[in-house]
Amino acid sequence: MSSKVNKVHEPLFHIAKRTGIPTWLSWLIRILSVAAALVACAVVTVILTGENPISVYATMIDGAIGTKRRVWSLLQNTAILLCISLAVTPAFKMKFWNIGAEGQVLMGGLATTACMILFGESMPSLLLYVLIIVTSIAAGAIWAFIPAFFKAKWNTNETLFTLMMNYIAMQIVSYFTYIWSVPKGSGQIGVINAATRAGWLPSIGGNAYLINIIIVAVLTVGMYVYLKYNKHGYELSVVGESENTAKYIGINVKKVIMRTMLLSGAICGIAGLLLVSGTDHTITRNTVEGRGFTAIMVSWLAKFNPVYMILTSLLLVFLQKGAIEISTIFGLNDSFSEIITGIIIFFIIGSEFFVNYQIKFRESQKGGNK
């Protein structure tokens, strides 16, 4: 009898998850992805506009760091984005999908605005600062605690809950913006306490944004220590890995959820304070400018590591500032700058695939089938 041999045709290549990758290699992949993105952007620039891509990139660099004022603006915006990224990180590490940072920051900013408008002319400066800090932290924490409470008690969908809370926060801010508008009915508050600067964060050495940067730097160190060395940071990591395991070893999962979201909301409240009291000195429903969603990407790309978030935040803000300058200098509309930014971000996100996975090609077999 003759036996038939079934030949198994293996694919030319397959994707396998990496078991471990050296840190230097992971960063090399990311750097190469940025280089590839710049090449792709150069091709797109030539095709769509006919401009010299070298000139475009030079303009991008100039738009981000071309003057001392632009450098400070870059650092200030990086600090705000980093602050919000730090806020969402504990929740994400716990696998609580907090999409509501936008609203939580707005509520913190609204609390700061209320203190500046209602008590700016009647309260001593030191007491006013204390009131602003306490109320902004409390407002952000409470806004984040609401979906956490419902998740812990009734297992609601936190993604939809926190997302909808953003729109509620925007409408609340719109309402009070109309109530406090100057002139009445204009829908714009304008610069708050412009004459007295009551409630404005003080400048240090003539640098208006330096105090914002210092505060966020302290928060970054604190968050790193909290996540890596604190018992609470360990507990939220365990909950993120497996709720059943956390319950088995005696961790109160519901308590961890609510505590972690209180922390996330409190830091968002601080971000709102920095935006209103330290940067804009006013508030609108668009004050956060989408940073609550960009912060999600920063946190994920940095693998929830606060130190890496500094670099990620700086890169994204650099690209944003540079893209705006490109549109201005070359007379292009905002859509083109968004195309450039989107391409670069796409490559950066795509690089994470090659960090976590590898492509293995089929090995040629010698000596026939066995």
Can you lay out the helices and strands and say which pair or pack?
Blueprint: E1 13-17, H1 23-49, H2 53-65, H3 68-93, H4 101-119, H5 125-154, H6 158-179, H7 210-229, H8 231-241, H9 243-248, H10 253-280, H11 291-301, H12 306-329, H13 334-356, E2 357-361
Antiparallel strand pairs: 1-2
Describe this structure in words.
This protein is mostly helical and 370 residues long. It has a domain at 77-329: ABC transporter involved in vitamin B12 uptake, BtuC (Orthogonal Bundle). Helix content is 70%, strand content 3%. The protein has helices spanning 23-49, 53-65, 68-93, 101-119, 125-154, 158-179, 210-229, 231-241, 243-248, 253-280, 291-301, 306-329, 334-356, and strands at 13-17, 357-361. The chain has a two-stranded antiparallel ribbon. The radius of gyration is 25 Å and the shape is globular. The mean pLDDT is 89.
